[in-house]
Amino acid sequence: MVQERAAFPTFSQEPIRLIDPDGRWVAPFPHGLSAQELRRFYRDMLAARLLDEKLVVLVRTGKTSFIAPHAGHEAAQVGIAHALQRGHDWLFPYYRDLGLVLAMGVPLPEIFGQTLGNAADPAKGRQMPSHPGSRSLNIFTVCSAIASHIPPAVGAAISMKLRRTGQVAVCTFGDGATSEGDWHAGVNFAAVQRAPVVFVCENNRYAISVNIAQQTASENIAIKAKAYGIPGYHVDGLDVLASYSVVRYAVERARAGEGPSLVELVVHRFGPHSSADDDTRYKSKEELSAERRQDPLLRYQRFLEREGLWDAQWANELRLEIAKELEAALQEAQAAGEPDPLQMFDDVFAARPWHLEEQRRLLAEELEA
Ligand SMILES: Cc1ncc(C[n+]2csc(CCOP(=O)(O)OP(=O)(O)O)c2C)c(N)n1
Questions:
Q1: In this structure, are 220 and 344 located in the same domain?
Q2: Catalytic one among 73, 149, 205, 269?
Q3: Mean predicted lDDT score pLDDT of the chain
Q4: Which of 25, 83, 151, 332 makes an SS bond possible with 109, Cβ 3.0 to 4.6 Å?
Q5: Whose CA is nearest to atom 25 of ligand 1?
Q6: One domain for residues 334 and 350
Q7: Which atom number of ligand 1 is nearest to the Cα of residue 144?
């Protein structure tokens, strides 16, 4: 493991970086990870990228109605996934986190089922696409209202503290979310309560078309932690090992009873905000191509090459293996068919109230006819 409990600098102006753009390890300590662990990060990043490409095809062929591309966020998301104790800690993600939930272990057929909104979806087709959750993996279902999941994450963390469960809540969001009232209320309360929660911002510098400079006057996102009396870490989110190490440090710090922190992972969003957006309307060609040149997968590939852990044949085989897994999972999800419309009345009330019983009966009659 990278540095068990090394302190990372708070409020640094330069983002914390362990691997430079040429793939050189630049930290003054060894990474301490096994070849298997290092390759696992690469596999998860590649799977996240290929999933993103597949989702684009699904929306373009009319199989789903909405996606929020995560290409460019892979290093950050895979770093976060490996930093928490999967199935023990809780994750409160947002809609751009499909690479993160995949790396957390949500089965691909479930992810596709959710995307298609069909019978393979654990939410029974009642959620917006790109809004997954997992009861078995302690993943809170994504809510579209920006920053609305911050107070619930804090509440969950306070409960973990009171019950001494040794769990941590990790809550992710974009840079735009940090301008919402819910965000400030949640972070403040977490800090006062010393709740075991880690706030992780995937800062891609845009809230749809709004550039970060038009959205906040703060010099970066991490600095916002200062006002609440908690540490803020400014991190290069295109560096998977920096993302992993700093989030893991913050998680273990929270678990040890030292309270919350804010980690800012600076990333790029390679695609549009969502399938309902055209990013070429507000990003110049130069900006888009400069971002693409800083591909987090390529940087990590360079690092692995230096470690003697990457070659083209291995990577091609891996790509084929993942592509096959994706296709098989998609087929499996598609085969599940449409969800039963009557399920829309399930799971909301322990005992269904009379007016919903009535509506359910009317719908059942209509379906019969
Ligand atoms: C409370 C609320 N206001 C507005 C929206 C519309 N909306 C959806 S995504 C988004 C931008 C969020 O940007 P950011 O938090 O930076 O995350 P990103 O999408 O860039 O990853 C907005 C304004 C919403 N979903 N909820």
A1: no
A2: 269
A3: 96
A4: 332
A5: 145
A6: no
A7: 25
